[in-house]
Amino acid sequence: MDTMHAVRGHHRGGPEELRYEEAPRPVPAEGELLVRVRSASITPGELDWDATWTDALDGSGTPRLPITPAKEFSGTVAALGPGVTDRSVDDEVYGLIPFTRDGAAAEFTVVPSVVVAGKPAELDHDATAALPLAGLTAWQGLVRHGGLRHGQRVLVHGGAGGVGALAVQVAAARGASVTATAAARDADFVRELGAERVIDYAGDRFEDQVDDVDLVFDTVGGDTLTRSWQVLRPGGVLVGIVAPPAATGPDGRRGVFFVVEPDRAGLEELNRLVRARQLTPLVAQVFPVEQAADAYARLDRPHRRGKIVLRVS
Ligand SMILES: NC(=O)c1ccc[n+]([C@@H]2O[C@H](COP(=O)([O-])OP(=O)(O)OC[C@H]3O[C@@H](n4cnc5c(N)ncnc54)[C@H](OP(=O)(O)O)[C@@H]3O)[C@@H](O)[C@H]2O)c1
Asked: Whole-prediction pTM value?
């Protein structure tokens, strides 16, 4: 059996359960790629998701221990599984790994070929690894679920965060007029991403500052989500990624919750925006993969601009 080094958790828990150790090298099955991982990226809450530790998204699954975390990667194709005809060995690829599978905090990972895309030539592997989960969440939330159209008024909550920073850029690139909430110290940064206006979430109540919004994209949840109905125009859409909003509000307002899905077509849309210099993934900090436990612990502390990346090789 070939081996590799990987971050693994043998018991469900937090960062303290993660070990960097020798593990079997995965073998690509029908339709899968074996990818030599260069960089991987991680997400707040990931070690709490049922899908990280079991074979189902909703708590009904059975444990699949030990697990390897980190659901997004950038790397190089090392081998093709049977039936793969759309990739070649040595292709540079990136993508989001289905949530109930092992992740990319390892020297090698396997992923269905249909969900990966070619790595954007404009970005290095660290920046590319920061793109799939946050970028697809922004794209799917704004465009697919929110039906975003040119000229609409959009409010992004958490505009300096991993997902929010990409949502601000995607919405601006699609011709929206973007307002974002963020910490006061992040206001200039979020304006540079494309927000016309930034509201200090600690100092101001956004519902006193903005109204008649076509689409609210909420990456914060809780009170921020429920207060957001007040700023929507009749018929407007409230898209939540942390917690489900009510499905409907008064006067045709509607709420949508979704979980991002691996999606090659979505990645290719992101590639187009990167190429047009309308989208830049944000890397807050890079950790060597051996320090993955520290990297996951860092996710619990606020004040990051963008994503935490694990550098593998
Ligand atoms: N449903 C899905 O498919 C999906 C996909 C991706 C992520 N998620 C979830 O979405 C959440 C956000 O992920 P992320 O990677 O973007 O997290 P993140 O990088 O921690 O970003 C959150 C941002 O929200 C800001 N914030 C905190 N409180 C706020 C408030 N009251 N009003 C406005 N902004 C506020 C934070 O600012 P400070 O730095 O000042 O605290 C931070 O910039 C996580 O819970 C994650 O699990 C869900």
From this structure: 0.96
